[in-house]
Amino acid sequence: MIERLNFRRPLNISFSVIAVTLLFIGIVESLSQWSATQEAKKTQNRIYLDNVAAFMDKYLDGYENIMREMTRIAAERHTFDKQNENDLALRNWMIERLRIMPDALSIIHVSNNGHYIRLPYIPLNGGEKNAWDPRKEPWFTLSVEDSDEAHYSISRDPFANRERVITISLPIIDGTDGTNTGVLALNLDLEKSTEILNTALPPVKSRTFVMNRQGEPIINPGYEFAPGVLKAIALNAREYRGDFVMNNRYYTYRTIGSQSWLVVHEVDESVLGDIAFRQCMSIVLCTLAALIVVLFCWWSTRAALNAIFMRIAASIRSGDITPASVEEIIYEEIHSSQQRQTLIAHEALTDGLTGLKNRRAFDADAARLSADPHAWIAMIDIDNFKNINDTWGHTVGDMVLKTVADLGSRLRGLENIFLYRYGGEEIAVLFQGISAEKAQSFLEKWRITVNTRSFREKDLKVSFSAGLCRMGGAPLSETLACADRRLYQAKKNGKNRIVAE
Questions:
Q1: Is 151 exposed, middle or buried (CB count within 10 Å of its CB: 0-12, 13-18, 19+)?
Q2: Mind giving me the DSSP string for 447-486?
Q3: 382-391 per-position pLDDT tens digit
């Protein structure tokens, strides 16, 4: 009998089960968070590299397209003078092309017999000029052997004393007989491409560089690599794009420059591990806090039950029992529940920024008034709102939107005028039992008040356009379309105006 009255054992078992369950959930969530965080960071790295590769591809493609057009024109209209290489028309044309390429160091036009023009013109001394034969440069050999693709290479520019420049070369094909008459080469400043990698902001501490498929560095912003690392990366990067793990480092790569170069993003796995650990620490701390709370609840429940049992025993002995005020507790709970429901209902139908009713409230009210011939609807759009955000920032944009809403709310007074934030910078207005003249007068007064309002930001002027349409004569969708058309007409007619029936 005494064992049946013992509450400690079931209490201990219940709280032990709760504690073990919390611990198990914490471990599972921590492992899941670890995996999810690492995968999320890897996804961010892939997106980052996609953006860098797309930018560099666009950068190189722009110059490649210019080169393709130049080789076509060179084959048709601009060729070397057979007597000497100082063809004035060819030089003038090359100078014009060079001016439209800001990162170009030089353009070299080479004929198959070794004659060349290099612009801008920088003279070499006699020994260097005789020693330098452009036909021995790799970019010339590659372009002569393969006439289908543009070739990207790293070469030396002896004229500008540059040991490393990016060279884009293309063969010049005679359109009449298809023969190769020479090569056109463009030298780009390697430092400009390095700046692209230096200014890009990666999501985590990492290294981004460009290499070729032979494992040779192309664009390296000062990174040091152990011998054989780049060759090992080249062996793993066989596809157009992908990622892999090697030597405790996570690599993501994309191809650029006619698929011959690789943009590689390298992240040490310990960096990803640190980030995942910090993310998991919140779950670990929450789990520990929950276990402490459970332990405290176990202790307090045990103490409270022990005290209750002691009071019951004392009451049984003395016969003195003080009843609890249950009705007061029930009343307080009902009152608190009603207040919470009212607050939730209000928040569900109110826009948090402007304090106006939201789109959900508009849909309900508009459906209710759609058949009322004495109701009107207006669609309002703040003029040039994107420029406000772009010029002064989204904080000022939010302030402008809130100010416009506040001015409209103040002007409407006690009339049957209802304002809603329809979406973005659009505000909808419903008029019930109000004439068209009164509705239009309210909108005009609101528009003038907004347009004459002074803001703290210099040169900030705000206006809006609106379209007003009667309800009740057509389905709600057509009425909305009518208001939108009049709003569009107001925008088209110069903005800062009201268009009504």
A1: buried
A2: HHHHHT---SSTT----EEEEEEE-SSS-HHHHHHHHHHH
A3: 999 999 999 9
Return the SS3 of 88.
helix
Contact assessment for residue 185 and residue 176, using Cβ atoms and an 8 Å cutoff: no
Residues serving a catalytic function are 425
- Give 395-402's long-range contacts (Cβ < 8 A, gap of 24+): 396/457, 396/460, 397/425, 398/353, 400/455, 400/460, 400/462, 401/353, 401/354, 401/425, 402/353, 402/354, 402/355
Inter-residue contact 417 to 431 (CB < 8 Å): yes
Q: By CB neighbour count within 10 A (0-12 exposed, 13-18 middle, 19+ buried), where does 356 fall? A: buried
Contacts of 291 (CB under 8 A, 6+ apart): 19, 22, 23
CA–CA separation, 392 and 457 (whole Å): 8
What is the reported pTM?
Answer: 0.52
Between the alpha carbon of residue 169 and those of residues 64, 149, 181, 259, 361, the distances in Å are 9, 9, 14, 15, 64
Beta strands in 216-287 (DSSP E): 217-219, 241-246, 249-256, 261-268
Q: Please, are residues 106 and 118 in contact by the beta-carbon 8 Å criterion?
A: yes
At residue 105, does pLDDT exceed 90? no
Contact 67, 186 (CB under 8 A): yes
Cα–Cα distance between 2 and 364 in angstroms, integer?
Answer: 64
Cα atoms in the Cβ-side hemisphere of radius 13 Å centred on 437: 0
Q: What is the largest CA-CA distance in the chain?
A: 131
In sign, the C-alpha dihedral spanning 407, 408, 409, 412 is positive
Confirm if 174 and 226 have CB atoms less than 8 A apart: no
Residue 297 identity (one-letter amino acid): C
DSSP state of 123: P
**Of 1-15, 240-254, 346-360, 466-480, where does mean pLDDT reach its minimum?**
1-15
Nearest to 295 by CA among 21, 23, 9, 15: 15
DSSP β-bridge partners for residue 168? 152, 186
Token look-up 């048709």 returns 76
